[in-house]
Design a protein that fits this description.
This protein has five helices and five strands. The chain is of the alpha/beta class.
């Protein structure tokens, strides 16, 4: 499975592609950041993020796009920018018919480090170890994007089995 992880942000939108299957060693395909100038108009920044995501989709052809689920913070303007960048990534994937998976920051941290409260340094260290990299990807947004992709690869089989069980249960309930 090839997954594009997206750590959404208006100034730095982390992107990373990981390939592999649960239970086997994973491989980093690419990692980077789509940047926009903080002083640019919002619409122009969103278009720049769209163009950057589209380039990653063209170049790396992921089977799934894993995006960080936006959660409430104290700074509303930060949440809004993150949500807007997240929506752009989801739109780009949906336009191509690529499934989108959303994962909360605590899900990603728990999957990669074992603790949902891990800090950025711990996430970066584990991403480095899991993907057998020489150094943690910089900036942290890039490491977070790889962590999202890793999280999805590891969680997808269980999520798929759960969805199948729910669908089976639901269909049995309708036939009675």
């Amino acid at each position: 499975m090839r997954v594009l992880g997206v750590d959404p942000g208006l100034t730095r939108c982390g992107v990373g592609v990981v390939e592999g299957v649960a239970g086997r060693p994973l491989a980093m395909v690419a990692v980077g950041v789509v940047r926009t100038p903080p002083d640019a108009e919002l619409g122009h920044r969103l278009v720049a993020i769209e163009q950057g995501i589209e380039e990653w989709l063209d170049e790396h052809r992921p089977e799934v796009v894993a995006v960080e689920r936006v959660f409430s913070q104290h700074n509303v303007s930060t949440v809004m920018g993150t949500a807007q960048a997240s929506a752009v990534a989801m739109l780009c994937a949906a336009r191509r018919g690529i499934p989108v998976a959303l994962h909360t920051p605590s899900e990603v941290k728990a999957a990669v480090t074992g603790s949902g409260r891990a800090d950025k340094a711990q996430v970066g260290a584990m991403v480095t170890r899991l993907l057998r990299l020489a150094a943690p990807p910089r900036p942290a947004d890039a490491a977070d994007a790889l962590a999202l992709a890793i999280c999805h690869i590891w969680r997808a089989p269980a999520q798929n089995r759960l969805q199948q069980a729910v669908a089976l249960h639901t269909s049995k309930g309708r036939t009675r």
